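Go through this pair.

…
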Amino acid sequence: MVVGFSVEIEEKQNIPIVHINGEIDIYTCPELRKKLCELIDNGSRKLILDLENIQYIDSTGLGTIAHTARAIESENGQIFVISSKNQIKKIFKVSGLEKKNITLCDTETSALKELS
């Protein structure tokens, strides 16, 4: 594990919430990918990714999230990304991922509300 990076999962309303801290980059993506694959393998098709405590995300990190979104897309899966940081939101908007099955939300409460 890279120092300062962590992935913790909690569940609310039967939806996994993946809290990610630190930087999502080429060094931390394997751990994130493993956790996301485990959730999908266990049947999760709706995920909330909490990126509030992310300082940086590179193209590898974005690719990991995009790959996860593609893996659940055919089963009407959806990923809700929580971030109030404009630079993180901009990355998703510019990449076009927001137009797929990824929705940006400012808070966990708003993400859970979208799912209910």
Summary: Helices lie at 29-41, 59-73, 86-95, 108-115.
